[in-house]
Amino acid sequence: MSPTMILNIQLGLGYVPWLLCFAAYIWPRLRSMEPIEAQRAIAMLHSFRFFGLVFLVPGVVGPDLAPGFASFAAYGDFATGLLAMLALLGVRRPAIFWPLVVAFNVVGVVDLVGDYYHGVMLDLPGHAGQLGATYAIPVIYVPLLMITHVAAFYLLARSRRHQPATA
Prior knowledge:
6 helices, 0% strand
């Protein structure tokens, strides 16, 4: 099996165990939490996205990793992580917390969708070996990030629907 095929299979299958785990353990808990606590838990996970800067570290990734992919992935993750940290720091002030929750989720989804786009356009699977030590990020970590972004938006919409109308 070629490295291209292996990465493509792993990218797709990376969602399966996370969806099973999410459905069985994480989603029931998130749904039962107060909206602010559920978003806080999701923000905590995303606050570690500063780690994405590793795509820019020579020796960790191969010298031929497409710069268009590496830069977008690194800085998108970094921005998302910083916004999630700011949300966590502002959790006691709803006027700060909620806009930052929306911001880190929007930036995070744009980052992940952009990474998939750049990965396809720059033939990332054909250069899978250039991911080096970062190989596990798109295969293991990204599916959980995308799933939790979708959950965060769902929870935001649900909490919005259940808010009493103001005059």
